[in-house]
Amino acid sequence: MPGQRLIWQAYPFHNKWKRKEVMKLGYNVAIDGPAGAGKSTIAKLVAKEKGYIYVDTGAMYRAIALYFLNQGLNASEIEKMKEIAEQAQVEIGYEQGVQQVYLNGENVTSKIREEAVGNMASISSAVPEVRARLLNLQRTLAQKEDVIMDGRDIGTNILPNADVKIYLTASVETRAKRRFHELLAKGVSCTLEEITHDIEQRDFRDMNRETAPLCQAKDAILIDSSDMTISEVVEKICSYCNKNLDE
Fold first, then answer.
1. Is 122 or 70 the better-scoring residue by pLDDT?
2. Residues 6+ apart with CB under 8 A from 242
C-alpha cells in the first residue's frame, strides 16, 4: 500500500542456519560481484521487472559502517567494531515502494552512499560480529519472500541455495569510469586515478578477506557488463528467472 512502511528487524544471529530444516517458500536471486559493477542498479530493475522484493545488503553494511564512523572509529579499530556492533540497530523499510535504510531510528538512506562510508564498509563488513548482526534478517526475509539480493557473498554464503546465482562484473577501467562520472554528476570533486585506486584496493580487500571473501560461486552465471548496456544486463538476468509468481 502507498505510504505503508514495512519493517524487518535485525537481531543477533546465534544459531547455526540449517537450510534443510526450513520450508523454502521464496524464490531467491543472488547477484554477487565487485564494487562498481552496477549490482544495485541492475538488481532494482530486475526486481521491478519480475515483481521481486529488492534487498540491498550493501546498504545494510554501509549503515553499520556509518555508525562506526559516527562513533569516531577508523578502519584499523577492528576490536572496537566487534565490541559495539550490536549497538547499531539497522532496519529496512519501504515508503511508497522505495527502500529506506534506518540506523538507530534515523533515516540514513542518503548518507550511506558517501565514499568514506563505502570504504569503511569494505573493511567492517569482513568482521564476523558485523556479519552476524545482519545475517538473520537477510536469510529470514529470503525464506518467506521472492527476493533479489546483491552483495559480495550472497550466492556463496548468505543464500547458498538461491534459485538463480549471478556473478556480475566489469573491468576495473570500466567500473572506475562509471563511478567517476557518477560522482562528477553529484558535484563531488575527484580524479579518475583516485577512483581507480580505490576500486583496486576494495577489490583486493573483498577478495582476500578471511570471512566470506568475494568469489564466483561454482554454480553462478558469469556476466561481464563491460560492453553491455544496463537494459541488456537486466534482460539477460531476467531470462534466467523463470518462476511464474501467479502459480
1. 70
2. none
Give alpha helix (H) positions in 150-189.
172-185
- Write phi, then psi, for 235 (nearest 5 degrees): -60, -40
User: What single-letter amino acid sits at 210?
Assistant: E
Distance of CA 52 to the CA centre of its chain: 16
CA–CA separation, 89 vs 135, rounded Å?
13
At residue 56, the pLDDT reads 80
Query: Taking 90 as the threshold, does the pLDDT of residue 225 lie above it?
Result: yes
Which of 206, 204, 183 minimizes the C-alpha distance to 116?
183
- Tell me the C-alpha to C-alpha distance, in Å, between residue 82 and each of 16, 75, 110, 128, 192: 19, 12, 25, 8, 34
**How many other C-beta atoms are found inside a 10 Å radius of the C-beta of residue 130?**
26
Distance CA 95, CA 159 (A): 26
Which residue in 25, 23, 27, 31 sits closest to 50, CA to CA?
27
User: Can you point out the beta strands (E) in 96-140?
Assistant: 98-103, 106-107
**What's the mean per-residue pLDDT of the chain?**
86
Question: pLDDT tens for residues 17-46?
Answer: 333 344 557 899 999 999 999 998 999 999
**Which amino acid is located at 37 in the chain?**
A
Where residue 243 falls among pLDDT bands split at 50, 70, 90?
low
Q: Are 54 and 97 in contact (CB under 8 A)?
A: no
Average pLDDT over residues 225-238: 96
**What single letter denotes the amino acid at residue 83?**
E
Please state, in angstroms and rounded to a whole number, the distance separating the CA atoms of residues 12 and 232.
39
Q: Which of 13, 7, 37 is nearest to 131 (CA)?
A: 13
